[in-house]
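Appendix B, Record 12. Input sequence as logged:
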Amino acid sequence: MKSEKFKKEPRTQSTEHRLKKNTFRYIVFVLLSVICVLSSVHAERIKDIASFEGVRDNQLIGYGLVVGLDGSGDKGQTAVQGIVNMLKRMGLTINANDLQSKNIAVVVVTASLPPFAKPGLKTDALISTIGDAKSIQGGTLLLTPLKGPDGKVYALAQGPVSIGGFAAAGEGAVSQKNHTTAGKVPEGVTIEREPLFSLGNGSDIRLFLHRADFTTADGVSKQINDALQGDFAVTLDPSAVKLSVPEEYRDNLVGLITRVEMLDVKVDMPAKIIINERTGTVVVGDNVRISPVAIAHGSLAIEIREEALVSQPLPFAPEKAETVQVPRTDISVTEQKGHLVEVSGITLGEVVRALNALGVTPRDLISILQALKAAGALRAELELI
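Logged structural output:
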């Protein structure tokens, strides 16, 4: 009896051990499956794909003068007249004919006023010449008021100009890096007036998608409603979602916006292929599909060589005989043999592997994609840029 009992116990422990081991494997398998499913879903924050109404940049513009140039400024009298007017406002009167200088350049100053900008904050100014100045290297922008579309001054710009390059010229050579007639004044803009903005009307606020899409807009409204546990978001059109402010957020609109911006939404991308024929760049989207089709593509190379031969008169030739230049042209045509290759793909990886199997250059690939689109085998939109 003792021996039989001793034999049964190891079997029971072994069975329990196998059950625990199989259970552990099953749990690991389920967790890995969930992780794979979640990782396959392309989700982005609402903050990255949309913006709330009223949260936007405002453009500013102004006309100013850059001084301190090394003879590379404007040659006309426009810049000189600007200096004369500035000195007149400072109480110094100078005749424009008495001021001859090539160290001044008339420029356009532009800046972008960030949303919710407060007086005293600083931002960058972009400088561009409008005259015949050759370079603004080493120049300094004088105090320039920057105005908005309403004609009001919202900021002031001033400071040394940085062009991020140089230009040097001699009698027979010129060396230049970057563009010398445009530059930037880092943090040279000081905001003086706070722009008016409207962040909703108190009861609701609209959310604008950066890329209009029905599926994405509907997904945004559903995700917001699930997070707020109510029917607060309504899709107005492919690019706008209307959000009614809940009662608990009436006095905390910033908290509501912060919570909504951090929500993850699955972004639906259209099936599209971007083609740049100038550079030979091809970008294939995720949802591109290719129906089964066979392709035969061969390259045709034509090489033309021209050589100038000289025909000289023979010895004891007549005096009228002259040396004649005879052109010689050699043309060679090489055509590679094309073979049929089956191309198809359901996922992006399959499409890439199928196109790589053709072994063609990017420019040949552009022609193949256009032919696939014409044959109806390419289920995607071709966009030329």
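The radius of gyration is 36 Å.
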